[in-house]
Specification:
alpha+beta, 4 helices, 4 strands, 21% strand, globular
């Protein structure tokens, strides 16, 4: 299964998620906010439009990693993603 991961190579949660997804042999499309302005722009679009981010923004969080699966699932929950494998 293909998983788009939006995060940063500077974020421990993102690195952990990438390792766990590799263990599941996921096909990963990593969008690194810290290394790519187009990836940052794509992330900001998601953050501004996805209702999941309301609580993140209210709490002052960044909200990474973010996962988008080829089955249409969009989540901030790594366990939800891992359970699909």
């Amino acid at each position: 299964m293909k998983v788009v991961v939006i995060g940063s190579h500077l974020c421990q949660d993102t690195l952990y998620a990438l390792c766990k997804l590799r263990e599941k042999n996921a096909e990963i499309d990593f969008k690194d906010l810290s290394a790519s302005l187009p990836d940052l722009k794509a992330y900001l679009e998601v953050r501004e439009t996805d209702p999941q981010y309301e609580a993140v923004k209210a709490g002052g969080g960044i909200g990474i990693p973010y996962f988008a699966l080829e089955d249409g699932t969009k989540t901030l929950d790594l366990e939800e993603v891992l359970n699909k494998f």
